[in-house]
Amino acid sequence: MSKLENKVTEYLNELDRNDNCENDSPCPDREAIEAALKKINGRKTELETILWQIKENDGEPICMVDEDAALMKQGRGKGFDVCYNVQTSVDDKNGLIVDFNATNHANDLCELSDMIERSKEALGVEKLSVLADTGYSKGEEINISEGMGAVCYIPKPKPSHQSKNEEFNREKFKYDAESNTYTCPTGNVMPQVRTKARNGFKVYANRAACKKCTVKEQCTKSTTLREIERSHYQENVDRAAQNAKENPDLYQRRMELSEHPFGVVKHIWGVSQFLCRGNEMITGEIALAFLAFNLRRAVTIMGVKKLVEAINKGVFSLDGSLFSLYWLHLLSRNV
Description:
The protein is α+β, with helices and mostly antiparallel strands. Among the domains are: about 1-55, no CATH class; about 165-230, no CATH class. It has helices at about 1-20, 30-55, 110-125, 140-145, 205-210, 215-220, 235-245, 250-270, 280-300, 305-315, 325-335, and strands at about 70-75, 80-85, 85-90, 95-105, 130, 150-155, 175, 180-185, 190-195, 200-205, 230, 315-320, 320-325. The strands form five sheets. A five-stranded antiparallel β-sheet has the order 7-8-9-10-11, with no helix packed on it. The protein has a two-stranded antiparallel ribbon with strand order 1-2. Strands 3-4 form a two-stranded antiparallel ribbon. Strand 8 and strand 9 (about 190-195) form a beta hairpin. Helix 9 (about 280-300) runs antiparallel to helix 11. It is flat. It starts with a helix and ends with a helix. About 15% of the residues are buried.
């Protein structure tokens, strides 16, 4: 907008030169200048509309090409791009994609319970063992998922700010539920001192102990005291993390299951970008790719003859596991 304003000023000055120009002197082309001003004012109107849309979107970015997409950070230092976040759930026994969903959420924090509910419905089961990475470690989501009959195996992410001395990392502070206190590595008890209004996190500290502590510089950068925050759902997060820690071989399966379909579809088949626009259209587009993946898996497991028979019957029967032809339903709904 600032650049356009400067351009307008330049062209208005050109018009003034035109008006003051002597007849025998070369003068700016008035018609060309007025046409340029009209174009600039049109662009200003477009930008004002965009600014209004951003304001209506609570200041969040908007995409002019696809209003359903969102700006997201890319992995491996690739910066930011406008895209979708595609979620999948994959079964351990056969490696089939059970369900998927395309969202415009920039991270996975709020996706866990939704994918568990969709997977339970698709498989017709009441309980699931769920393997997910640290991106799904939101306590509230884990709590909802456990209430739905899911046993979660989800490691905790490492805190962004750690002490220089590993002996004073957050996990070294032991929580006692009965007294609702933490004990620091030097043995000092830290009671709850307040609750954050923004997120409801409980804050634990012991100002007097920190003031006298001889190793405070190894524990915190603060000149006053060390604080520990605890979520209302910390027990859920700790339980999911402990499950993953106690079952490393089981948790190792997560990468083999969840990353394999994306590796095949994106890097082997080359479906690395959506060709369509809008959530409904790209859902249909990815449904085709995932349907192809599942059919290829079914051919590997069953062979073509048994697969055709299963399709004619309307079900997959894989070693006693029942899979409805959910993908054909998705295909008919979205394509």
